[in-house]
Amino acid sequence: MSLTLYFHPLSSYCWKALIGLYELEVPFEKHLVDLSNPAERDAFAHIWPLAKFPVLRDAARDRTLPESTIILEYADGLAAGPRRLIPTDPELALRCRLQDRLYDLYIHQAMQKIVGDRLRPADARDALGVEQAHAQLESAYALLDPHVRPGTSESGANGTNGADFTLADCAAMPALFYANKVAPFVGRWKNLAAYLERLEARPSVARVLREAEPYMHAFPG
User: Fold this and answer.
1) Residue 55 domain boundaries
2) Residue 196: is its pLDDT beyond 60?
């Protein structure tokens, strides 16, 4: 098999890549890397020096691709079936990529700031940074909630974004899932809550959640 995904089943950005690969039905192998193991970290760093998840290795084409969005853009071009993660219509494709960036930059990163701070020793915590991350999440929730109302062009996960399921949905699911654990929006932002529920019902997402379940006890949320 040509494609290998280097990942960890608890990593939120790995979820994004996995969901898209499962949706596209692109054949690939999974290589779980334990970064706490020095030997595994060193071996992974030989493949990608920054040693950050996820990384897709295409042995047949001698290509190494980091970053979840780039991985899914690449996989989208390899898919043999009719399904695509990026709409062919230029306007819809632009909206899709914008939503992908919004979820990664304003929800995903803020969520990771809060989670990362919980892993620090008590005397090294960044209270101001966490406060700023919570404020950013609230702004992002307010911005995105109207756009995922059923019937809108960006509502995703239900065929209204010009495709059955897009790159934007792949980005949204792990960002919203983990953000809801550290800065809950369910019960406050009804459209985002309903959108997350639709996402979790998707077979590709349900598969990722099942695979992550044995590791979820390690999540500091």
Assistant:
1) 3-78
2) yes
